[in-house]
Amino acid sequence: MADPLYELLITYFDTPPPRIPPSSTDPTTNAYLSRLTTLPLSSLTSTEPQSLAQSTHSLLLSLQALSKRSHKYIIDSSTHLSTLGTTLPVLAQSTASLRDAIPKLDDAAINFSETYNLRAENTNPLLDRRRKALLLSRNIDRLSDVLDLPTLLSSAISSSSNTAAPTTSNAASSNATLNYASALDLNAHIKRLHALYPDSPLISSVSLQAETAMQDMCSNLIASLRGNSLKLASAMRTISWLRRVAPELDLIPANASISTMSSMSTSGGTREGALGALFLVCRLSNLEQMLSALEPLRELADQETSKLKNQSGIAKGEKEREKSKWEGGQQTERYLKRYIEIFREQSFAIVSMYRSIFPPPAVTPEGLKGMIKSPGLEDPLQPLPSALGTFPLKLVGMLGETLRKYLPNVRDRSSRDSLLTQVLYCAGSLGRLGGDFSLILAFLNEREDEREDEREDEREGEDEDEEGSSEEWVEVIRKHRVLAGRLELMVGSKEH
Predict the structure, then answer these.
(1) What is the dihedral of CA 98, 100, 102, 103, to 10 degrees?
(2) Smallest Cα–Cα separation from 327: which of 229, 411, 445?
(3) Could you tell me if 271 and 265 are in contact, meaning their C-beta atoms sit under 8 angstroms apart?
(4) Which of 310, 342, 408, 423 could cross-link to 448 by cystine, CB 3.0-4.6 Å?
(5) Average pLDDT, the chain
(6) Contact (Cβ atoms closer than 8 angstroms) between residue 248 and residue 194
(7) Which of 328, 335, 249, 253 has the alpha carbon at shortest distance from 291?
(8) For residues 272-281, b (16+ Cβ closer than 10 Å) or e, as one string?
(9) Tens digits of per-residue pLDDT, 173-193?
């Protein structure tokens, strides 16, 4: 029924204005034709046109609303639809290229997985650098701490040297002690790291910087031993730090055995190493520095010496005036008094401080027997004697040279006796530590006798004084002993 009706109605599409006829296979067209066959003939002329007009109007309104609401999307869809004809061939070509490239990509992925696998036997240099970079990234904080160690060590040493000045207070001294202790702990930590990782260039570099800083610390400690206000406690701390900073100064020889070390402790040997000599040299330098402060007085004493030497070329009247002016030797007396006073204080302080820092070991018969039994098995140069054994000779030589040079300028008997008594007190002070040099007075007149022989003509009228000058030191010692005995009696009576 639908096909004849479709053929009947299709002819009306050719009338003007011509329209495109619907397809006979269109489901909508077939459904409408089937509906027409069910309607009565009267409705085809009465209600059906109205229904079609109403449907047309409703569709028109719907299209208008849709175009108003979605006109942008419709335009975009139309534009894209117009390019779809050229896009689809390009897409097909790209898809074909991708299909052809997939085998190559698969081969490259297999090659990459074989080249850069994480197995231990893989020695690829790129992968090795990547491993090192990852390891460095994970341990960057630790490496930063290690690199900061030399800076921390240098800061601790510099702050210690600044606070350890001779005029520091107790708080500053304690700060210096803490800073030096921290520096030693840091250096010990760096040495431990170097022992654990000897092949690491980074640790080796840090260790070299630490060694340079510790050399500076050693220099600061040695300089502190030359300070003017060095006390026993600070000296002992400094020596203990030097034992840790510079152990080569306090080493037992490598070929020394246990018996050698025991004999050193039981037969009079010392464990001071080179530290004892270093301490004495530093304190001697301080003593010479303090004595050099007497340079103005020494220059005046030298002027007196030159005046007395030149008296032989002066006329008799002028000679008497010059003699009365320079014969007393007041400037020389001032210089010698101050010199002996400084020498007495400092020499006693040096020796007593040394004996406290480096106490002499006890000598036992067992130690002596051990040394006698095996004299050829050990180093014959060990144990070394103490550096203090010859140091008092150096001090006495300094004092004796000064006295021989300047004491002849003092012609007044009471002034000479006062100076010699002061020398005896100095000898007694040092004698309490085993360094008595009272007999040096017996050799002080040797140079004076030589000068007197040269000036024999000008001292012809003073024969009696010359006869007593040779025994001058005997009288001074006798008087000194009498005074010492009286003091002992006074002290003993007060105790009772």
Answers:
(1) -170
(2) 411
(3) yes
(4) 408
(5) 77
(6) no
(7) 335
(8) bbbbbbbbbb
(9) 667 778 888 888 999 999 999
